[in-house]
Every structure is written in structure tokens, then in C-alpha cells.
Amino acid sequence: MSQDYPIGTQGKPWGEAEKQEWYAQQTKQRDYENDVIRRIDHLREQFDVETYGELNYAGNSYPLFVVRSRKWRAELPTVLVTGGVHGYETSGVHGALYFLETEAVNHLARFNIIVAPCLSPWGYETINRWNPDAIDPNRSFKANSPAQECALIMTYLNQHKLAPDVHIDLHETTDTDNSEFRPAKAARDGTVNTNWNIPDGFYLVADSQRSEPDFQRAIIETVKPVTHIAPADEDGCLIGAPMVQEGVIEYDGKGLGLCMGLTDARFVTTTEVYPDSANTNPVECVDAQVAAIKGALEYAAKAL
């Protein structure tokens, strides 16, 4: 048994037996069709809805959807919104959907909009960071991706020659990062787990190769009236990374295989809300995601 996790042997990476043991313990806790597909269907009057692939896991089929501007105009810049790369991060999925239901129409004159609300529906249903193969999709956006969730959206964008100018990827940081997912990762990889300080509040992860600090700042300022911004810890960091400005850290998107490295968009960011905070609630977290997209588009509309 791993020191911090009930599957595997301390210091030894998982083989197929351990991955199957982990998979066997996962159970459906909510319904993708009812929670997500039904809301997508209600958007068909205003937007084009396309299926870009299907995941099949243990006899269960999960169709994957993008919702697009109906009147696509080649002369307009394009914005991509992705949610549910980590399926358990609830407000990422529901923030993407709520943006389409409320705010998106206000930007159709200035942008082509494409939204993939839930890239990892199995993870959504089982409240998981990984897919059934114990792979983290948000480390797998790379050539010959081992994660179907990544490969399918990458193929779709390439086939349709979609080159977004703006990409907002919607995420959460939760207490289960420390109680479940980081210990599981260490067990899977045969390493020692070190938990991180979970920030209390909203923050952004910018791409270190195209950080656009004014763009990130504009998003933070738009979110402030909706929910609180995470302060740095005693080391001046958020989740172990130095805070480069209020509420912003940086990762190498493409180098790490992150979803924000999916495109070459000039303006790119990853949102992070903290739903387990005593100072917020699920509705506020969704509203913060929508505010972040709004702030991103209002800034980009002036800059592009």
C-alpha cells in the first residue's frame, strides 16, 4: 500500500492491475445527459451545435459537443472557451454553459464564439480529475495524446482549421486536490506526495510563453465584484508557483500539455475558483467563471 493512498506499493508506479483496481472503485455520482446535454439542446435555437466525437468507456457512450456562433464570419477574431477538462471541476462545466445561456449573445457582433462545455464527461459523472485510464487530460494536450478527451478536440480544431485568438479554459481548485487527487497521483507515479496550500479565492494561470499581463489584470478586475481574489501564501505563491501579479501565476502551457496550450491564441488564460471556500457558494463560482470570460472578451475586443 502507498503511504498516502490505499492502492499500490510505496515508491512503485502503478501497473495495469493497480489502474484497474482504481477504476473499479469509481462510481457514477451525477448525470452528464441530464446536467449537460439537455442544456446544450436548449441552445440550438441560437447557436450551431456539433458533435466532435464520442467517448466509449466500459459500454458507456459519451457524445462530445461544441456550441458555435451560427453566423460565422471569417473577418472576426475567434474565441474558444473550454470547460470540464477536469470533469470534477463543476463550475468549469456550468460556467461554460451559463456563459452561452446569458452572456455570449452580447459578443457575437465582435467575435466568432466556440465553446466546448465538457471535455471529460466520464470525469464529470464520477467526479474525477482523471479519465478511466488514470490519465490526467490536462497534462495530455500534445501530439499522439494518450487521452481521447484531448485527441478528439485537437482533431476537431485542426480539421476545421480553427485558430482562436482568445482561449479561456475554466477550472477549479478544490479541497479534494489534497485529500484525493495529489495522493492518488503520487501513488500512481511511485513518488512521494506533497500537498500544496490551496488558495482561498479566484485566481488565474497565465501561459508563461504569452503572459499578456494586462489581459490577465483585466479579467481579475472584472471578477472582483463577483467573488474574492486569492491572496498569496506566506511564500508569495499560489499552489507553489510565484504570484506574478494580484491573483495570477504562470505555467508553461504547451510544455506541460495543458489545455491552455491547445492553441496559439494570443490571449489565453486558465481560471481557477475555489468552491470549498466559506466565503463563496456554487452560484457565485459559476458567476465568477462567466465574469472571467466577459472580462477576457471586453479586453480582447479592444486589443484585436
Automatic annotation (TrEMBL):
GO molecular function, one term: hydrolase activity, acting on ester bonds
CDD domains: M14_REP34-like
Gene3D superfamilies reported in the protein's UniProt record: Zn peptidases
Keywords assigned: Hydrolase, Metal-binding, Zinc
PROSITE patterns: PEPTIDASE_M14
Domain Peptidase M14: 28-304
Cofactor(s) listed: Zn(2+)
InterPro entries for the chain: AstE_AspA_cat, Peptidase_M14
Pfam families given in the database record: AstE_AspA_cat
Example of a GO biological process term: proteolysis
Family note: Belongs to the peptidase M14 family.
UniProt protein name: Peptidase
Organism for this UniProt entry: Pseudidiomarina aquimaris
Species classification: Bacteria, Pseudomonadati, Pseudomonadota, Gammaproteobacteria, Alteromonadales
